[in-house]
Design brief:
Length: 320
């Protein structure tokens, strides 16, 4: 495949995401938060992802007979094109933090800026390569478009749907808007709620609208080596909002009344990560799904990711 494909696949294999950067999902449960550990890309999880991708790649290239082989390949390929089957937030995702969280000394500040510029340059190179590959011919426009405004609209809608579904315990909607791994975790948390408790969530307003919502990262990465590999699209959208959360007591004693002190209004900035799979042959994209929340990347977080990536690279070198 083209250079963009090789670089994208390399990014999946070598850049793990620190566990400390995976955020938890806020709910109305008395201010509690739902853990997103199921989508963490720590080193063990990253190894699982690599083995799954390598196993699928091997299966795609192995044929017992021409007819059976084609059927297996098509079945596996179609499965990879479903956004709900996305495994994790793409490793190496860098979310620029607010300036207040940048290093205080000038040297570290410049070094962190340089790291951000390098990551953005690599992302732009891979994205542009995939866009160029989608051109039917040199003189025709590319099929792939980086429609960031559509990604922002999708993230806002999915974020609101999920928050409302978590409050009401709407499992069907949770499954509809999330990848499988995240929905399984969230539904388990809903099932674990005490009986007789009901929760409410309301989006009061979007805040800081001059700055938010905004795209903090937009990536397109082939998930396998080779021509026509499926492509994972990912957008991290920063959303600033005022939310109201409340808890009700539906027990016989509580009679559906609001639990005293449970009503809270909070101002939050959330980095909502959405993903979608794209067919590497036709460049048709599946619907966006919520992959999880991610924290802004601090200099310490990124230093840890760089350290983990070197460990993975050394392990790959030993295996070769």
């Amino acid at each position: 495949m083209a250079m963009a494909s090789r670089l994208g696949h390399l990014a999946i294999r070598t850049l793990p995401t620190s566990a400390t950067r995976i955020a938890s999902w806020p709910t109305a449960d008395s201010g509690s938060r739902i853990s997103a550990r199921s989508i963490s890309t720590t080193q063990p999880a990253q190894n699982v992802i690599r083995r799954q991708l390598d196993k699928t790649n091997e299966k795609l290239t192995r044929q017992r007979s021409p007819k059976v082989g084609r059927m297996e390949m098509e079945s596996d390929y179609v499965g990879l094109l479903k956004s709900e089957n996305i495994q994790t937030i793409l490793p190496g995702t860098l979310v620029r933090p607010p300036l207040s969280r940048w290093p205080n000394d000038a040297k570290s500040w410049v070094r962190f800026l340089w790291e951000i510029l390098k990551v953005r340059t690599m992302e732009a190179f891979v994205n542009s390569g995939i866009k160029f590959q989608s051109k039917p011919s040199i003189l025709k426009r590319a099929i792939v478009r980086r429609n960031k405004s559509a990604a922002v609209s999708a993230a806002k809608a999915l974020h609101r749907q999920l928050a409302e579904a978590l409050a009401t315990g709407d499992k069907e909607t949770i499954q509809k808007v999330c990848i499988k791994k995240l929905s399984t975790s969230l539904i388990a948390t809903v099932d674990a709620r005490p009986r007789g408790r009901r929760y409410g969530w309301e989006l009061v307003e979007y805040t800081q609208q001059f700055w938010y919502p905004s795209i903090r990262s937009f990536r397109m990465v082939p998930v396998l080596k080779g021509k026509d590999a499926p492509i994972q699209k990912q957008a991290v959208v920063a959303i600033s909002s005022k939310q109201r959360r409340v808890e009700y007591d539906d027990s016989r004693k509580g009679q559906g009344k609001m639990v005293p002190g449970s009503e809270k209004e909070v101002d939050v900035v959330e980095y909502v990560t959405i993903g979608a799979m794209m067919d590497g042959r036709t460049y048709e994209s599946d619907a966006w799904k919520i992959v999880g929340l991610i924290k802004a990347t601090s200099p310490e977080d990124w230093a840890m990711e760089r350290h983990l990536s070197r460990i993975v690279e050394e392990g790959d070198a030993l295996q070769r």
